[in-house]
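Justification of resources, computational component.

The compute hours requested in this renewal are based largely on the per-chain cost of generating structure records like the one below. Each record pairs the submitted sequence with a full structure-token output. That output is archived, and it is also reused by downstream analysis tasks.
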Amino acid sequence: MKLRGNRPQSPDRRALLAGAGALAATTALAACGRSEAPVDDDGRVRLRFATDWRAQAEHGGFYQALASGAYEKRGLNVQIMQGGPAVNVPQLLASGAVELGMGSNSFIPMNLVAEGAPVKAVAAFFQKDPQVLIAHPDPSLSSIADLRDRPILLADASINAFWVWLKARYGFTDDQVRKYTFNPAPFLADERAVQQGYLTSEPYTIEQEAGFTPKVFLLADEGYPSYAAMVLAPTAFARDNARALRSFIAASAEGWRDYIQGDGRAADALIRRDNPDMTQDILDQARAKLKANGIVDGGDAALYGLGTMTEERWRAFFEVTSEAGVYPPNLDWRQAFTTQYLPGRG
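The structure output for this chain reads:
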């Protein structure tokens, strides 16, 4: 199977997890009675953490915390369980197969609220969702607004995700939409075409395969309010394991700080071990983009610490999506998140 950047040419993890179809096991989650984490003989609390795709730089801080012993020194025995095309994080949480999971964007916890599932985002390690729009080099393109009359290749799940925001913000229309099958060929064949992508993946793939540097527009820099790389926790588990959860978040924040600002080689070695298809050049360019664009430590994280979330951001996300009809206006959006387990809170 041909590799597409850092993963096979198969449905993208953001597309797989953004839809309501990811929530089939919410009834089981609500009924799950076990909420206390298991404890090893040496007293360490065992936590299984499911990521949203195969191991890559977008998980680097968690792997760094594992490699450096940041989890262990806080009394935790953490197992990172990498995702993939057949892995559904909400279902893993619902079945009790993992204690914690990773949410790719703000639609995930909001969808869980809409489904009545007792699970919340407890930290967000990407202050900016790395979702981008990619265009061919063109000096006439200086902002996302300049893409208003262009055909845009989108995955089905993106129609009910960031496309909602693009239409509300820029007046984009559905007649611009073309089917995106996670194959760059249609984009490369049409110089006017625009394609969705992830900052750390598709632009690099296009540059390597097509031999030109594409124009890349990071939606977050234009005000797109979604978080990414969130830690999701069932409400009962968080309540009954508050100390362990706070320790996990604090250790993960340490790991992300060291991965972005320090030497990420130890984490990269674990990533390549879990995902043999990963290469060091992909990891290096992805880590550089995370750092250069302030994905982890920019925005509110610069003020309040890594992993932070604010009510203002969640309100902004809910307002634009509910006004577009994605969620009912009376949805209790505050149930999608809690900040009480972040360092310095609670």
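Residues 242-261 form the longest helix (20 residues). DSSP finds 15 helices and twelve strands in the chain.
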